[in-house]
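Issue 218. Parser rejects a valid record. Input:
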Amino acid sequence: MQNGLNKFFDSVSPTAEQKQRMLSNILNHSGEEPRMKKVSKGMSMTVIFAAVILLFGGTALAAALGSFDWLIRRFDPVFGNLAVKVEAVSVDQDIRMEVIGARRYDNMAVIYLSLQDLSGENRITEDTGFRDGFSVKMDIPDGENSGMGMRRNMLYFDEETNTVYYEITIDSDWPIADPLELESFLIHFGTALYENEPIDIDLSSVTEAEAVPLGDSYIYGRDSSFDGVPKPAEILAPGFYAEMPHGNERQWISNVGLLDGYLHVQVNSLYGEFGPGSSPDIYLLSPEGERVDGYYVQMFADGEGRIFLNGERVSDDNIVYRYMDFVYPVDTAVLDNYSLYYSGSVTSGAVGSWKVSANTGDTGKQMRIWANTVPVEGILLEHLTLSPLGLSARGSYAGENDTGLEVVLLTPAGEINLGTHDGSWDNNKKTVNYNWNSKSPVDVSAVTGMKVNGVRIEMN
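Output the parser choked on:
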């Protein structure tokens, strides 16, 4: 045991004082002599790991054992016994993405992944994720479309190292490529919500404002309460009037003024993957505390601030700004009795390129496949694959595809309900790609059959 500890000490490089304290903690108990003969070999290793974590923390243990072994021992994740060590790293925008372990089964996979902020800005939060910016490479037949489902379970958020650890399960319409290739181009750090925030503008000082002509095609947001209000022929001239309550520079109050006897409040939002929502909720509160909504006029502008009017638009790639002129049909003579408020959200994140590739081994012997056709509720299930992660099926249908199929696996120990499917279908080709995800690893060898919407299917 002493030799084993010395090897571990060499890997984490503690001081002599730390070595002595650790040995004392492990070998002694309440001042008594060591009683190693009464402790099993397995128990002594558990004690060692616990002491190491207490003395050096999880980071040192991860460095000594490797990220994969540390994660499995530390968190015992649901599908941890299925994964194999990967420990592949990709860094961009000072964000380190590591695929710690993974395993693929045809069109399903489990992935253990971490994200760490190396910049020192602590941008990673417990809400960090990928939104739509995460994908796996699939073997997609020519002419076919494909979709992917992802479920993300946060295992741990390490505030000290600003690292978040995830267990991710994936199902796709087609087999996942081997080797496994993962890629991300958007990492969403978090979203800040703002509700009923006052906008620091004294409405009593608002006067007639400079205007620019407006085309009818840019009138949006009218509802029945404004049927008697004529469409404005002008909107406020864009500029800078005040900051928004969130203080983010990608959105601001562009102008406030009176036009045609109505109060106009204009907001400008800079387009981008992250930042304030481009459709803020701007409203008034009356002296009685009642909410007063307006309708809004929407415009677009290029990078030089040139407004596109009268229905003239450029491609989305060239649209940089979105202006919204909020119009309030209130008595402008008593504006000093009203207050202006904002509700909305601001997202933060990084745009970059994170990509890893890993061979997770041959899992063919851990799967069972039905190649025969099974008719259920008007759908012909023509290819079913059972893996430790669940069941997938491809098939076809003749009528309308509006049937939810529930799958129950049959084993000598009892039934395993996989619930209803997710996946996709093609209304033109009348084909389906369905997946049923298990909440825990399936012992494929123990499955004797299944029921799909009550239709029993025996194993071959």
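Fixed in the parser; the record now loads. DSSP finds four helices and 30 strands in the chain.
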